[in-house]
């Protein structure tokens, strides 16, 4: 009898869940491929295969009708000759009629679509991780519906920190990803619906992996947030927005991030072009934008950054708010302004991304000679928002001074090959911040004034000749 029971359990745990992922035409295939890798990195009963891009009719209002989405999925099913028990998941890039993040086909619970929008403002988890999360949702909701439970009744209206939180607002998804949990009620429902232990184990492993990319303290972990290749001064101001839930604070952090993008762009562009950056005392945001626009070639693509800034009156927005005491009356008006600023910043970031990824910021800490006589510099790489900057050894053919490195503990801007270095001193410093007494990256605010980009405070550094580490 016992043996028989074990046999049944083993059999039960051998259940495989085959998922075929299709994506709307125009969606980045490499993101789809990476989302599937989650199921390879954490193997288990879910086997995911990547199907082709599919065309879905877009309505005149620019949205997808659910009927059209599910029709397209059923055609893809037929064409690929899938078994009826196979799951089909479709990644959409066009918004859908009800603006849902994900939804399931009532006539076939094993069909589900998920919308891949811009979540980089509410979570540091990359897009492919969010799609992996949706794929898990496709299996869970499919099983629940098939067990006769109305899946709509399962989703929680309030926030419980559970996989089944409905998440009417985008930021709520950020919380769900950070808990990576399932509440007790939903665990019971999943068990009742026949979710096997192996299924629960694999999905928990994957969700735990996604969680470490989503948590606010991921700044202390190696992560692959969308801004992980960006220079630290802009990656850190970007990451802080993701961590904030309060609408007013979030809006302020977005304005700080805009300032940081422009400031960094100005300094790096000057140094890269062999010029000594000129900065007045306590420059205004308008001053940075103006200087930058004088330095950029009007034909250059990056000039578009200035055009967007001027067209959208970002400097005015910032001055109105921070300088002249204007403030929206309610949390709601902050939220609306934040939404608008979010889309402006997205266009600016998209333009600047190739520039940010074209070089590296680093601080050589020690320079030594190895047994073969080659010089080795141990350098802190200032990429991404990780405060404990990863250290890398750089090997030089000859004297490192010939490549531009002249002093340890100064910040350098290196080309991608890390063969040419230009000093960012004294505009960027790696030193003890006098306000918080921690080693920090400080960015010039003109004269002896600096900004600790991690803490967001302004400090004065008077002994510039002697940067410590
Ligand atoms: Zn729950
Ligand atoms: Zn500080």
Question: What is the count of β-strands?
Answer: 14
Query: What's the CATH first level of the largest domain?
Result: Alpha Beta
Count of alpha and pi helical runs: 14
Low-confidence stretches: 1-5, 7-11, 465-469
Q: H/E order of the elements?
A: HEHEHEEEHHHHHHHHHHHEEEEEEEEE
What does this structure look like?
With 469 residues, the chain is of the alpha+beta class. It has helices at residues 2-13, 29-41, 66-79, 127-146, 151-154, 170-179, 184-192, 197-214, 232-243, 247-272, 285-295, 303-311, 314-323, 331-356, and strands spanning 17-24, 46-54, 87-92, 102-105, 108-115, 359-369, 375-381, 391-396, 412-415, 421-423, 428-432, 439-444, 449-452, 457-460. The radius of gyration is 26 Å and the shape is globular. The model is unreliable at 1-5, 7-11 and 465-469 (pLDDT under 50). Bound molecules: zinc ion (2 copies). One zinc ion (ZN) is lined by residues 156, 160, 162, 164, 182-183, 185-186.
